[in-house]
Design goal:
The complex is a heterodimer of chains A (249) and B (305).
Chain A lengths: L1 H18 L3 E5 L3 E4 L6 E9 L1 H4 L3 E7 L2 E12 L2 E15 L2 E5 L9 H7 L16 H17 L3 E4 L3 E2 L4 E8 L6 E10 L5 E13 L2 H11 L1 H25 L1
Parallel strand pairs in A: 2-12, 7-8
Antiparallel strand pairs in A: 1-3, 3-10, 4-7, 4-11, 5-6, 9-10, 11-12
Helix pairs in contact in A: 5-6
Chain B lengths: L1 E4 L4 E4 H18 L4 H10 L4 H25 L5 H28 L2 H33 L17 E4 L4 E4 L1 H17 L4 H10 L5 H27 L4 H24 L2 H24 L6 E6 L4
Antiparallel strand pairs in B: 1-2, 3-4
Helix pairs in contact in B: 1-3, 1-9, 2-3, 3-8, 3-9, 4-6, 4-8, 5-10, 6-7, 7-8
Classes of the chains: A alpha+beta (249), B mainly alpha (305).
């Protein structure tokens, strides 16, 4: 970890003179692998801001997980019985993970239209639906998704960007064990104290299955019939072994 | 000890899965039921996606029921002829069940149909079985000898054959019909159908309880083999790491269940099974009456429809 900071600072030293990027970020571990003992992970981000702009500036980092198609149905009570309702909402590109962090306690001081323009925060996240419904109809389902994610650690809002020195900052995002696999987009924004965008920077992290977990899930998709056949055969063999072992004791 | 499940996409405790497998295996060996209806909700409670829970459960039950089946076969408690006749009806029924499910999905009433029909069947079967087994136990205490089985009009239908193992000489129409109904139910509900099959063989066909359990397991072995392959082929939802962890407990549990079962009398087994069926029915009733913690269902779908 320490060596990462050293390399990162070195990289900034040689980088800054030629380009003068006001905001730069980098991620410690860009490849997170899910192995048989996976129990969650962390995305650690280091960044630097042009020292001249550093005072009073606002840093916001958004992490969006790989998106997928989700079908949401509400449960409703009919005559005292809980049943799944008829209405459903299909989200085409709902991110599987959503986290946002900043160096402010809250983003209330920032103009709403700017947040909306930059898609910062859950409310400004655009999730497309193919039911062609208006915002009023979509909103309750977005709320459902948010609470679903919140309960599983897939939605995190924090103000935990640590200022480490003159212009260096650090942020950390926790990925729960059930985090989806794919590319995570990390977008960093630098705003001045009036909430005007000065600069932005994008990184990405890849979360993928590895080893046995990768092999099994790949095989189940590439050879679904054989996978099923082997699964059934395995179960029969296990049943046979169990019965043979017990016969002898 | 946590182990990551590759298809379900989450880590889970090794010992929890072992003990769940053990309990279901025990039920399977003892009563000839798959136990999917107890297990699937428990897996979902642990956070496993419903589609993965149902499919991996089929694979797990296959191991438990095959283990139990072999143990019963060694004790000559399987009526193969009856089993294959039930299966013939079962295959036709399960194909028809798939189409029926499709129709119910189109009219959008599948949930109410499935849960209500299952609750009604289980409650009825459970209560009746409890009443019958208690009565039989009382009669035996008073020293009355009961008949091998009641002869009802169904048995007088044409196409009679001799089922040596079951001590029966009955028409093949009722077994085919029972197999058919169980096939339809197992397609629609995604269960092996043991809960329905066992009471039906005892009360409608009049088979001895001991033989019923082994024969039911034979049917469950076939049904779960097919559904493991189909779930994997169509949905890729069988998590072999999950089912392997479950089946370690299951094969052991099934053997213990079989050993306990041979020590019990038919009516004692029926009494215990009746209680389990009633518990399942109560749980299912609770499920639709109690306000859920999360009043919604979120499913990941492959394509935008």
């Amino acid at each position: 970890m320490k060596s990462f900071i050293v390399i990162f600072l070195f990289f900034i030293q040689i980088y800054q003179p030629c380009a003068r990027e006001p905001l730069l970020t980098d991620i410690v571990d860009k490849d997170i692998s899910i192995t048989a003992s996976f129990d969650g992970a962390k995305i650690i981000i280091y960044g630097t801001v042009d020292p001249k702009l550093y005072k009073d500036s606002i840093i916001i980092i958004n992490v969006l997980g790989p998106s997928s198609h989700l079908k949401i149905r509400k449960k409703e009570k009919y005559a005292g019985i809980w049943l799944v309702g008829k209405n459903e909402m299909i989200f085409n590109n709902a991110p599987g993970y959503f986290a946002s962090s900043s160096n402010l306690d809250n983003l209330k001081s920032i103009d709403y239209s700017i947040l909306k323009e930059l898609n910062i925060g859950w409310n400004n996240l655009i999730i497309s639906t193919n039911n062609f419904k208006n915002d009023k109809e979509v909103e309750p389902y977005k709320k459902i998704l948010k609470s679903y994610y919140q309960n599983r650690g897939l939605y995190q809002i924090a103000s935990n960007i640590d200022i480490l020195g003159e212009s260096l900052f650090r942020a950390e995002f926790v990925l729960p064990a059930i985090t989806p696999t794919g590319i995570y987009n990390v977008k960093s924004f630098l705003l001045n104290h009036n909430g005007k965008l000065i600069s932005s920077w994008a990184n990405s992290v890849k979360v993928s299955k590895e080893g046995l977990a990768e092999g099994l899930s790949d095989y189940s998709i590439e050879h679904p019939f054989l996978y099923g056949l082997l699964a059934a055969l395995g179960a029969i063999i296990a049943g046979y072994i169990g019965s043979e072992v017990f016969r002898r004791i | 000890m946590e182990i990551y499940l590759p298809i379900a996409g989450l880590p889970i405790n090794f010992f929890i899965l072992m003990s769940l497998g053990l309990v279901v295996g025990f039920l399977s060996g003892m009563f000839g039921v798959g136990g999917g209806f107890l297990m699937t909700p428990l897996l979902m409670l642990l956070g496993i996606p419903p589609a993965v829970a149902v499919a991996s459960e089929a694979n797990h039950i296959l191991a438990a029921s095959f283990s139990g089946f072999l143990a019963h076969m060694r004790r000559l408690n399987v009526d193969f002829l009856m089993g294959f006749i039930l299966l013939t009806g079962g295959i036709v029924g399960s194909i028809l069940g798939v189409f029926l499910l499709k129709y119910l999905l189109i009219i959008g009433q599948e949930k109410i149909f499935i849960s209500l029909s299952y609750i009604i069947i289980l409650t009825f079967v459970g209560v009746w079985m409890l009443w019958e087994s208690l009565n039989t136990l009382k009669k035996i205490n008073k020293g009355k000898i009961n008949k091998l089985h009641e002869h009802i009009w169904l048995h007088g239908l044409p196409f009679k054959i001799k089922f040596r193992k079951s001590h029966l000489y009955i028409s093949i129409i009722p077994p085919i019909f029972i197999g058919f109904v169980v096939g339809v139910l197992s397609s629609i509900m995604g269960v092996g159908g043991g809960f329905i099959l066992v009471p039906a063989m005892i009360y409608i066909l009049g088979m001895p309880t001991q033989v019923v359990i082994g024969t039911s397991l034979l049917q469950i072995v076939f049904v779960t083999s097919v559904s493991t392959i189909m779930h994997s082929y169509i949905n890729q939802t069988v998590d072999v790491v999950l089912s392997s962890l479950l089946l370690i407990g299951a094969v052991i549990g099934a053997q213990i269940g079989t050993r306990v079962m041979v020590k019990l009398k038919g009516e004692q087994i029926r009494f215990l099974l009746a209680i389990i069926i009633i518990i399942v029915a109560v749980v299912l009733i609770g499920e639709i009456l109690v306000t859920p913690k999360e009043a919604f269902i979120i499913e990941s779908i492959k394509e935008n429809i």
